[in-house]
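Interim report to the steering committee. The following record documents the input for DUF2975 domain-containing protein (173 residues).
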Amino acid sequence: MSRFGTGLSRALYVAMLAIMGLMLLAALFGAIITVVALVDPSAIEGLRARINGQDVYMRQPELALTVGLIMAIACTFFVAVLWQLVGLLKSAASGQPFTADNVRRLRILAALFVTMMLVQLATLIMPVIAQDLLNARALRLDLGTLFAALLSLVLAEVFRAGVALREDVEGTI
């Protein structure tokens, strides 16, 4: 791999680690909001969230609980996706992208995308706690997540074929 490609992979790796750190902090904040809403609902009354373009004050403990859980779950999924991408970048930077580990990482990415889509679908089906704040028009299924899952599965198969080809070539040398 060229020095430019390796340098670019390293820069992306560092950027992803920084983003993962920020997302972990956001997930922690969401978890803290959830715990506080469960333990002492009056403590969260001054908090404000932006939902569907509206500023919402957390006067209802159920709303704070919902926002905290959604924030924690979304950030955790995001970090899990980034973790797999960091692994892919590390192996690309080392010059060995076609490995069994990368096939596994791509399959995990596909599973994460499918899980995200199922969670999204569940939010469409479940009764909405704050009906006046969240309406059905704002909750729609994103088919881009399904596309990302299918693309990850296709890439996993391409990488699996690359691993088999590399092993075959190494066996003949």
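DSSP finds four helices and two strands in the chain. The committee is asked to note this result when reviewing the revised timeline.
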